[in-house]
Design a protein that fits this description.
The complex is a heterodimer. Chain A is built from seven helices and 18 strands. Chain A is of the alpha+beta class. Chain A folds into three domains: 98 residues; 127 residues, Jelly Rolls (Sandwich), CATH 2.60.120; 77 residues, Phage tail protein beta-alpha-beta fold (3-Layer(bab) Sandwich), CATH 3.55.50. The chains are: A alpha+beta, B mainly alpha.
Chain lengths: 311, 170
Amino acid sequence: MEKYIKDNAFLARWIAGDLSPQELEKFQKSDDYPVLKRINDASQNLKAPTFNDQALLNKLQELNNLQSTRPKGKVVKLIPNWAYAAAAVVIAFGLFYVMTMKSHFETGFSEQLAVVLPDNSEVKLNANSHLDYKTLGWKSNRALQLDGEAFFDVEKGESFKVFTDVGMVEVLGTEFNVISRDSYFEVQCMEGKVRVTSTVLKKNVILLPGDAVRVVNNSLEEWDFALTESNWTLGESTFKNTPINQVLMSLENQFNITLDKSNIDSNKRFTGAFTHKDLKLALKTISVPMGLSYSVDKETGIILLNSNNNN
Amino acid sequence: MNKETKSVCEEINYEHLFRTHSKSLFNFVYYKCGDRQQAEDIVQDTFVKLWYNCSKVIFDKAKSYLYTVARNLFLNEVAHKKIVLQHQSLSFNDRTNESPEFLMEEQEFMIKLKKVIADLPEKQREVFLLSRIDKKKYSEISEIVGVSVKAVEKRMSLALITLREKLGNI
């Protein structure tokens, strides 16, 4: 057999009719050829058993139809639908909470508080003051709600606004002081530029360093102050031609006392300063230049102020 | 319809696939196992599987999918018994003028041949029969069986050599 077989695909090539005439001739002379030829001829006459494809197709169609209509068993979801709804509600609440989240700061009597805002701006809250701002989107909307007195050291950036009941302060610079109590509104600019808008008077003032403005009795007063003057953040409250009521209110806030101001002339103005450390000294520094005397009610703790001139 | 967009899930296409391939698929499995019932079952299961996965099988790839599935189904049948191929005997219409002795001898040879083919190793047998009965080209067989054309040729030659040796000289 080996005489004519050249490779192990030789017979396969013969079957396929791919032998060259020379190869075929040589192969036909071999002993194996008649047998192999007979095997080949005979095997080509073999037949596979009949295969009833129509019957099987019908059966298949039946099976396939059955399969498509057969209930496929209950599919239990890993995460039920209500869980999605619940999650959505939780997320909605969370978002709502974050969007409207406000930071609130508050100082009581005799308290001072330093607050660092998200952009590193600093706010010093004086006694008995409230400060509110939205934490989210602070960088794009720097707006604060203030009731009381606060000193601002603002970082550069978008406009920085302080809203109060009586007016709005828009920062064009960096350091300023705001007082907003009841109908009294006072702004002092220490550095840069500050625009003050009085909502009551519908007026606009731009303050430069050393400028100050106040709204009192529905009129706008502007004055200058020395930048070197100490301010309340350093433990001393300074006033310049300020209504006496305002000065005394500041004193009340600082020392947590109650003053009876019924006997004094509220139109008087005070220029000067009082310390935050010593009540007696503070009372003296106000009452002496204003020509006032004071007496303490032992029971109620109320300090009664009297005008010396009237007595 | 564009060939690429033909969906196996459509009844017409599915039926077309069945008509084109079921017979040769049946033969292929039959050559492997020699059991008509088993072959029919495997063909049926294969087409059921095709229908079940019709959305995942591309029409053009359906043929090789069918053969692969059939092959695997066959392999999954753990014990396949020693088999006896039962080929339909052929009518020798063109040889009716032969002598009775010749016919006898011819029939004997056929019986012997069938037996020897049945004794062939499965891999050689399926290649040999796919080539001789189904008249498939080697390239086509290689696709069906899942081996290279070279391997198919080798198996074919080996099958012939084995047959030749077992049948001896006649």
